[in-house]
Amino acid sequence: MVNDRRAAIKKLKKLVFAPKAEIETFRKKIEEEFTEIFLPNRVEREEKDIGGIPCDILSPMVYATDRVMVYIHGGSFIGGSRASWRSFCASLAHASSTKIILPEIRLAPKFPFPAALDDIKDVFKTICVEEPDILIGADGSGASIAMGLLLSLKEKVRERIKEIVLFSPWLDFSDDAPIFKTKKLKDEIITVDAIKRTGNMYTYSSNLSNPLVSPLYMKPSMMGNFPEIYIQMGEKEVITSEAERFCNLLRENNVKYTFDVEKDMMHMFQMADEYLNEAHLAIERVGTHIRIRNEEEEEAPGKGAED
């Protein structure tokens, strides 16, 4: 496959709620661009209500029975759905040999913070009773919700989450975010004005520095018993500096993490796999990491590995 960067950028721009975009037009473009009739890699889909929330259950042909991932889609808090994220999540499920639960979260501005977070909490509480090992996956604005879930849980309950996987995470919507004050930042997909507008549509101004909204405001006292965190993003993203700050915060508080930056790539390049070879390779890296990490845990003393 010959890379077509221009086509990839055109597609991926539809993921970001631009400053002058209309809500319904934005949502429609995401659904038209990213919804696929057939899922890749023979992944099977089942619909199920979990904790009162409609969810897709995406099951690859081969998957580990001792883990499941709950995936929180991006879309600037404003758009996106199970339908438009199914194909991407199916590819991730196949690469990681992991069954994925994809909830239909409520969207802002009709349902502002904490509606989407409450939806994910309802799903999590329900599967906690049924599933042994739980992973959380998210991208873009969904990363805020994923970290909000983690921070909402008591430290003992956090043990149920074995790892968090974040693609191009949005981590700071506050007025004091450095990217809002730095001039001449360039990004092929995102603008700082788009991120600012997204935050203001999601919640009220004085709540933007709430760690449940902007995880970079986490205090060390909030980070007890954190699971490992895997972050994957493109080198050319305007939010890379925020991810670096986040990694520094994790390191300072002894939280294990992986920071996987793809050279010369843009925001959510993984969702343009028909145009970019790097997208396939990146998802394979994440999948391999999840599989190997799980195998290592099974073989660890006290865990017990099956023969």
Short précis:
The protein is α/β, with parallel strands linked by helices and 307 residues long. It has helices spanning 5-12, 23-34, 82-96, 115-128, 142-152, 155-158, 192-202, 240-252, 277-299, and strands at residues 44-50, 53-59, 67-72, 99-103, 133-139, 161-167, 228-234, 257-262.
Number of strands: 8
Mean pLDDT: 94
Oligomeric state of the chains in view: single chain
Give the topology string: H per helix, E per strand: HHEEEHEHEHHEHEHEH
Give unreliable regions as ranges.
Answer: 302-307
Amino-to-carboxy terminus distance: 40 Å
Number of helices: 9
Helix percent reads: 25-40%
The computed structural class is alpha/beta
Strand ordering within the main sheet: 1-2-4-3-5-6-7-8
Largest sheet: 8 strands, mixed
Query: How much strand?
Result: 15-25%
Radius of gyration: 18 Å
Can you tell me the overall shape?
Answer: globular
Description of the structure:
- By secondary structure, the protein is of the alpha/beta class.
- Helices cover about 35% and strands about 15% of the residues.
- It is built from 9 helices and 8 strands.
- It has an 8-stranded mixed β-sheet, with helices on both faces.
- Strand 1 (about 45-50) and strand 2 (about 55-60) form a beta hairpin.
- Helix 2 (about 25-35) packs across helix 3 (about 80-95), helix 3 packs across helix 9 (about 275-300) and helix 4 packs across helix 5 (about 140-150).
- The longest helix has 23 residues, at about 275-300.
- The radius of gyration is 18 Å and the shape is globular.
